Amino acid sequence: MNGTGDRVRVWAIAGSLRTDSWNQKLLVAAAALAPEDVDVHISDVLPQIPLFNEDLIGNEPAAVGRLRAEVQAADAVLIVTPEYNGMVPGVLKNLLDWITFPLFACAMMDKPVSLMGASTGKLATARAQSGLRQLFVYNRALVVPSPEVLVNFAHEAFDSKGQLIDPMYRDRIAHQFAYLKKYARLNTMDEVALNS
Ligand SMILES: Cc1cc2nc3c(=O)[nH]c(=O)nc-3n(C[C@H](O)[C@H](O)[C@H](O)COP(=O)(O)O)c2cc1C
């Protein structure tokens, strides 16, 4: 938590480079639904992240340093993922591989994480989100178990202003934020306890 009271800082990213990305729209819509005491920072770092190469560790590109610093400064993380061939998109997996370093002391460690996703298909991003849950085991990140935010038939889910048409999605997003906040606060209390 930052020094301005009990506000929760959430670092957020959508795993798509596409100009008209539904997941970027979902992220913007979700940020607008965040509780009053939650600040959502939508990162624009994804297009600058190079392909992961272990040879670059120790001499890593500036964008990776920025990514790591942004995540480190946040109380919690929100990831909005597309799904390709039943999996996490390569660009997002690539970014997450970078912030897994340093191993066992990475910026994601103990970080509360919300997952959301949109796809034009029926199953939304269930498989990609399931893959992310598995990935975050290695980071020891604390993924909010439920409710899941799975926006299917994304091309029908938003109005012309980018609002989510179905109130069920808005309710689920609000519910997810409530849990993310709760986890972020529990985490801060742990730190206090550990440091005292
Ligand atoms: C190569 C390819 C594979 C895809 N695989 C899946 C998939 O496995 N599951 C799914 O729900 N949608 C799949 N889609 C559809 C994407 O969900 C859709 O393109 C979506 O709009 C991508 O996210 P974005 O709009 O945020 O860029 C696939 C699309 C492409 C081009």
Features:
196 residues, alpha/beta, Rossmann fold, six-stranded parallel β-sheet, binds flavin mononucleotide
Describe the protein's architecture and organization.
The protein has 196 residues and is α/β, with parallel strands linked by helices. It has one domain (8-195): 3-Layer(aba) Sandwich (Rossmann fold). Helix content is 38%, strand content 15%. It contains five helices and six strands, in the order E-H-E-H-E-H-E-H-E-E-H. The chain has helices at 22-32, 62-73, 90-98, 126-139, 167-195; strands at residues 8-14, 38-42, 76-81, 112-118, 142-143, 149-151. Strands 1, 2, 3, 4, 5 and 6 form a six-stranded parallel sheet that branches. Helix 4 (126-139) links the parallel strand 4 (112-118) and strand 5 (142-143). It is globular. The relative contact order is 0.18. The model has no long low-confidence stretch (mean pLDDT 93). The site of flavin mononucleotide has 16 residues, from helix 1. Residues 16, 18, 21-23, 82-86, 119-121, 123, 125, 154 line the site of flavin mononucleotide.
Summed up:
This protein is an alpha/beta fold. It is 38% helix and 15% strand.
**Total E-strand runs:** 6
Residue stretches low in confidence (pLDDT < 50, at least 5 long) are none
Mean pLDDT: 93
CATH architecture: 3-Layer(aba) Sandwich
CATH class: Alpha Beta
What's the shape? globular
The largest β sheet comes out as: 6 strands, parallel
Question: What distance lies between the first and last C-alpha atoms, to the nearest angstrom?
Answer: 17 Å
Ligand species: flavin mononucleotide
Give the full name of the CATH homologous superfamily: Flavodoxin domain
Number of domains: 1
Structural class: alpha/beta
The total count of helices amounts to 5
Q: What is the third-level CATH name, the topology?
A: Rossmann fold
Evaluate the radius of gyration. Answer: 16 Å
Write the H/E string, N to C: EHEHEHEHEEH
What share of the residues lie within helices? 25-40%
